[in-house]
Amino acid sequence: MHLRLFAIVMSLLCEVIRMGSGVMQKQSAHRETSEDCQSCLECSRDNGCVRCPERLFLFLQRKGMSHHGTCLHSCPAGHFGQRGRDVNRCMKCRSLDCEHCFSRDFCTKCKPGFKLHKGKCLIHCPEGTYAHQTDCLEDCSLAPLGEWSEWSVCVRDGATCGFRWGKQTRARESSQSGREAEEKGASVCPPQSETQRCRMKKKCPTERRQNKKGGLGRKRERKRVRLLASSRPGVSPEATTDPSRGP
């Protein structure tokens, strides 16, 4: 009788131990297969991760009235990683127009349609800056421009001749300009220009024509007449010079 009672008690005890072991195995299996708990040091069925490994960040998402935690290697868009003594957290950027931020108030990348200037996301660049792709640049030399144009005509005081030395310029600018460039995120920087010294024609064409009408022209005319007379025997240079005189 005592042996039978002892056997019944032992069988019940074994059944309780087996059932408890099964429950623990199910909880362990759930922890290992759950995506939210794979990288957690501590995990809650209702709230997900509550503690992460040293190098990971705890990212909390609101679900209804509670928060659900996930351990991530890098924080998602609109958040930045803040390391602490006990836990590393993903903190939200203050600006809703910010896609990535270095700290709560300093943005490093803006959402499409905004330009980044000194950690802020703006619709239009401030005065004195130039839009280039997703940034507002204060130094436009950082933005690539097009090819240099040809050198201009050499001028001085608005004249192209009459002086020994003058100046000529060339410029380069963006292949796209104005509204089209801003819509496509291209550079809208003002054109750059260069100036160099150049040699001018000291005598203008009008002065040359006057010289031809003067003494230099008469000398050339007399030379032409002599050559013409030598090619026509019997004709004197005087007759060739004055058509009104008879042969």
Walkthrough of the structure:
This protein is of the alpha+beta class and 247 residues long. 28% of the residues lie in helices and 28% in strands. It contains five helices and 14 strands. The strands form seven sheets. A two-stranded antiparallel ribbon has the order 1-2. Strands 3-4 form a two-stranded antiparallel ribbon. Strand 3 and strand 4 form a beta hairpin. The longest helix is centred in the first third of the chain and has 32 residues.
Describe how the helices and strands are arranged:
Layout: H1 2-33, E1 42-44, E2 48-51, E3 57-63, E4 66-72, E5 79-82, E6 89-92, E7 98-103, E8 106-110, E9 115-117, E10 120-122, E11 130-132, E12 135-137, E13 165-172, H2 178-183, E14 192-199, H3 205-213, H4 215-230, H5 237-241
Antiparallel strand pairs: 1-2, 3-4, 5-6, 7-8, 9-10, 11-12, 13-14
